[in-house]
């Protein structure tokens, strides 16, 4: 276990007073983030469960509704996030190897990609708003009112079930987007600190554990994309 | 300060002038503290407040049920009363109490650390708890919630006219307090144990809090999402839980109980951890079957996630799923039984002292036994069909939650009070209060088993006249119980000013937390201790000095030390 | 625990694999695979997604080079998710109407 000696490194010691050494602190931070991510798995998992059950009950309605989503924007967003995971991993790499300029560069690119994702999401949401696809009467004056010709609903699918799809779509992508926003905020903080030279090969745990969070948010989207956007395409649907 | 390997108990000299309580004064030093001990006290205050509020609602329920007619409240008001009693007690008292008060205080001390892994997150968890509490109280004063603490749909989503969303938001927020506490405990126990403190040298209190933290992390996010879905459903009326629109109310129940059943293990496991400490220490004997007790905590945490459908036997869930859940519910009783057997074996031939903490521990064992066994009745599918939604259920869960969790909480508070405050509580009054609580509790809830078995339904403010005698007994018991609970509140507060000053190790015990002054300094240990002894080592075989021997004329000499 | 620095080459290879996986998912989505067995499209999509997620977890999140404790934590998370899914869906599958859609 932890050995009781104090490590100091330069003018600004990153060792918190209640830890015995940096290794203990680093391990605690890493395990803490992983435990938090496990909690996030259960958090999103419950929504995936609701999705699974309703999709199994109403496959036709879900397929028709899914086909109405913009697959191009969804696919672009998927690529954006995968690239951002790469750049995040590279940012961690340059933090580990102590290259300040490239740390900052890749953290910044990751942040910009995250903002791109959110921007595209905003465009998608705006399209839904215009098409009256926001469920219920959440937006006063714009109740759920899809253009049924566009949807080409098969006879066994009801509009109510289409509304359920959009309900789950907004709940899942909305929660995901919220996590992206938090990730972007964290990145902004990291960029500021990295610019000031805070992260060195000896101390870069915040970059690493933020990377874990970012990759997790990417993984959620890796599942969301096929389940929400692609489920009905083989029925010959299209936007 | 004791830092050597010896297991002798040398009392620490006069407590240093500076301890965690008097090191800094002023409200900012409390509200912005990072000291786990101060945060534990912040929780103590807020948890007690919610307990009192929940208790007031309990009194209102018992007052109404004195008579078969609904004379005190109308039915929709009564619905609010029992709902709010449930919400306040479950989410704001039973789930946080032991982990956030005793756990926060003791986990770092028991493993020889200066604080938890993430002190600022610890403080944040308290603030989150308070904010969640404020939202819930806001719902209460705005007009209340009437759905039952279980929020079943479609009543809660479609038909209830009460402040469901507001209460739901409060619960959603408070859930994160629980998650952060659990996260802190898990990381602390994994990474900050003192040198020499292997997993199997940890006190069982730590094992039970570790298991509790697993449940907090894995279960709480699901209730958070469930409450969120409930709130959105109320706003959007899409119908995911409404059968009229093709939704499924059972899905809500699955998601709700996936957390809420393990939640009851969040409530009981820490209490069991306390009882393990009390039973071993007040028998001055190593706990019997340490490994079994340790692993049974983990087993309860794991198995506890597999049984939630036993709350849904009559809901419309499939019979086959019901059978699976019934079988698994029988299985989950086994680790709990293992604990009870091991506690009993520990007591056997121990040198038992009937101090107040031990009285509460003994009460726990008996009352939890009854509560647990009646749970087995309910796990049987056929019996549950008859007993569900009757007062039998109410009696069952109060036996485990009050007879179980609350007894452990009170026992632990008394046991560690000298460490926390540096003062002793008055033993005479404490024993008296324990007796009053025990009598009052049984008088309140035992008649409810009978009434429920005879068919009295729960959540009704009227009942058939033949149940009145039982209800009067129950209300009388509740009054006694209420008085009994007030007594410790009074003398604990009294003791902080006038109580006898406590030594560092007033009970003369081997635990690591007793090797610091009472109250401890802010950093707990000036030097990280090196642990070379087992958790409940009462008499090392090689030294002649009999450790922990109580100087009493009427007690025979202790037998030679039991092998650890 | 000493830190293992994953090389940039590995990152780029994994990135390539993820892009290939994405392209595959999209292409496969437009093929009707249901004549193999019902739900084949979904199974394929989920399989690709699981592979992509595994690559991210193992390499981008360094789990391949992490302590056993980290592995256990990740496995526990997945296991608990599985519990929630399996037991809940078992209720729906064993109901008289099962999960088959109405009509």
Describe how the helices and strands are arranged.
The complex is a heterotrimer of chains A (239), B (564) and C (103).
Chain A (H helix, E strand, L loop, with lengths): L21 H36 L1 H9 L3 H26 L3 H31 L17 H4 L7 H37 L9 H25 L10
Chain B lengths: L26 H5 L4 H29 L10 H20 L2 H15 L7 H24 L12 H5 L4 H28 L12 H33 L12 H34 L7 H14 L15 H29 L8 H24 L1 H7 L3 H31 L5 H27 L14 H31 L66
Chain C lengths: L7 H23 L9 H21 L7 H26 L10
Helix pairs in contact in C: 1-2
CATH topology of chain A: Four Helix Bundle (Hemerythrin (Met), subunit A)
Spatial extent as radius of gyration of chain B: 24 Å
Largest interface: A-C, 52 and 52 residues
Share of helix among residues of chain B?
55-70%
**What is the helix content of chain A?**
over 70%
Q: Rg of chain A, please?
A: 22 Å
Q: pLDDT below 50 for ≥5 consecutive residues: which ranges of chain B?
A: 1-8, 540-547, 549-564
Count of DSSP H/I helices of chain A = 7
Order of helices and strands of chain B: HHHHHHHHHHHHHHHH
Instruction: Give the structural class of chain A.
Output: mainly alpha
Distance between the termini of chain B: 25 Å
CATH architecture of chain A: Up-down Bundle
Tally of strands of chain B: 0
Please indicate the count of domains of chain A.
1
Number of helices of chain B: 16
Question: How would you summarize what this structure contains?
Answer:
Chain B has helices spanning 27-31, 36-64, 75-94, 97-111, 119-142, 155-159, 164-191, 204-236, 249-282, 290-303, 319-347, 356-379, 381-387, 391-421, 427-453, 468-498. Chain B has 564 residues and is mostly helical.
